[in-house]
Amino acid sequence: MDDFTMGETTGLGMLMAMGAVFFIFSIVVYLFIGFCLGKVFEKAGKPLWAGFIPIYNLIIILQIVGRPIWWVAFLLAAIIPVVGGLVCLAVAIIIGIDLAKSFGKDTLWGVLTALFGIVMIPIMAFSKDIQYVGPSAAPQGAAGSGSMGA
Predict the structure, then answer these.
(1) Helix, strand or coil for residue 96?
(2) Is 121 domain-assigned?
(3) Has residue 115 been placed in a domain?
(4) Segment (H or E) for 18
(5) Cα 83 from Cα 14, distance rounded (Å)
(6) Is residue 148 part of a domain?
(7) CA 93, CA 97: separation in Å to the nearest integer?
(8) In 10 A of CB 3, how many CB atoms?
(9) Residue 113: inside a domain, yes or no?
(10) CB 102 within 8 A of CB 110
(11) Is residue 129 packed enough to be buried (19+ CB in 10 Å), middle (13-18) or exposed (0-12)?
(12) Looking at the chain, which terminus has fewer C-beta neighbours within 10 angstroms, N or C?
């Protein structure tokens, strides 16, 4: 009976250790991506710290590309099974394309940004050749990119 209990304890300890390693790895990745987003935000005249705040960083991205803030609702629709995921993917690709064009890149770069952001965002953040050129999705007749209503 003691051998059985010892085996369960060892297995549980291994599982907890793997969970702790995964948790630490996740925190490191989150901090890295937050920092990279912040560097991209700085190129567009926004604060670096905004890259670390969930949902608020989506609002900043929408401001940078010239989309209305209510588009965050599309991204939060991901909680709806199947359809929400597809809507979220489509909107992420549109925003990725808008982000790429706002930094002078083409549509392919935007699709890659949406699908492989963990690679493309750091490239945008640290490349001296990539600079903010303005909101690509802003209405053509609008004088400012952040106006809300009348």
Answers:
(1) helix
(2) yes
(3) yes
(4) helix 2-43
(5) 38
(6) no
(7) 6
(8) 7
(9) yes
(10) no
(11) exposed
(12) C
CA–CA gap between residue 65 and residue 99 (Å, rounded): 6
Tokens 């099974």 appear where?
81
pLDDT tens digit sequence for 104-136: 999 999 999 999 999 999 999 999 999 999 898
Question: Token pair of 41, please?
Answer: 């935000």
49-61 pLDDT per residue, tens: 999 999 999 999 9
User: Can you state the angle between helices 83-102 and 56-65, rounded to 10 degrees?
Assistant: 50
For residue range 5-55, list pLDDT tens digits in order.
556 678 888 899 999 999 999 999 999 999 999 999 999 999 999 999 999
Q: Structure tokens of 29?
A: 């990745």
pLDDT tier at 140, thresholds 50, 70, 90: low
Enclosing domain of residue 63? 2-126
* Amino acid found at 51: G
Helix (H, G, I), strand (E, B) or coil at 104: coil
- What the block records as the tokens of 48 is 């670096």
How many domains are there within the chain? 1
